Amino acid sequence: MATEKEKFIENLKRRTKKLATDVILFCDTLKNSRATPVITYQLIKSATSVGANYRAACRGRSKAEFFSKICIVVEEADESEYWLEVIDETNLSNDHKELSRLLIEANEISRIMTKAKSSAYIKKPVNSNK
């Protein structure tokens, strides 16, 4: 029987992978412009990196390795949110409902991962030699 923590981790793995696949599909619906290939490339890179690095963090061999990977996850989730905001502000999407849903999901994942990062932060001992 899986613990609540294990269930939470597996759910988050599913959510981060779904964010990646949903972003890939969403990018195929964007309006064609000179900026679209650049924006979709950056967004797909960051959104797929969220799930990949979260999975790597879960397999971390130490707290320091987990912390290092979760820091990347936070950065990539925030970057994904940024590119989605750019799409919104430049009206590159006709699917405002899906764009809004992806923005909410990227923000929620970003907040969850930021909390995990804060919880995992390893304080270095203060050198007491004087």
Overall radius of gyration: 17 Å
Ranges where pLDDT stays below 50 over 5 or more residues in a row are none
Q: Assign the CATH superfamily.
A: 23S rRNA-intervening sequence
Shape: elongated
CATH architecture field: Up-down Bundle
- The average pLDDT is 93
Query: What is the number of helical segments per DSSP (H or I, 4+ residues)?
Result: 4
Summarize this structure as a short list of keywords or feature phrases.
about 130 residues; mainly alpha; de novo design (two linked rop proteins); elongated
Task: Chart the SSEs and their pairings.
Blueprint: H1 4-27, H2 36-58, H3 63-89, H4 96-120
Helix pairs in contact: 1-2, 1-4, 2-3, 3-4
Question: Your description of this structure?
Answer:
With 130 residues, the chain is mainly α. The chain has one domain (4-120): 23S rRNA-intervening sequence (de novo design (two linked rop proteins)). It is 76% helix and 0% strand. The chain contains four helices and no strands. The longest helix is centred in the middle third of the chain and has 27 residues, at 63-89. The chain is elongated. The mean pLDDT is 93.
In short:
The chain is mainly alpha-helical and 130 residues long. Helix content is 76%, strand content 0%. Helix 1 packs antiparallel against helix 2, helix 1 (4-27) runs antiparallel to helix 4 and helix 3 packs antiparallel against helix 4.
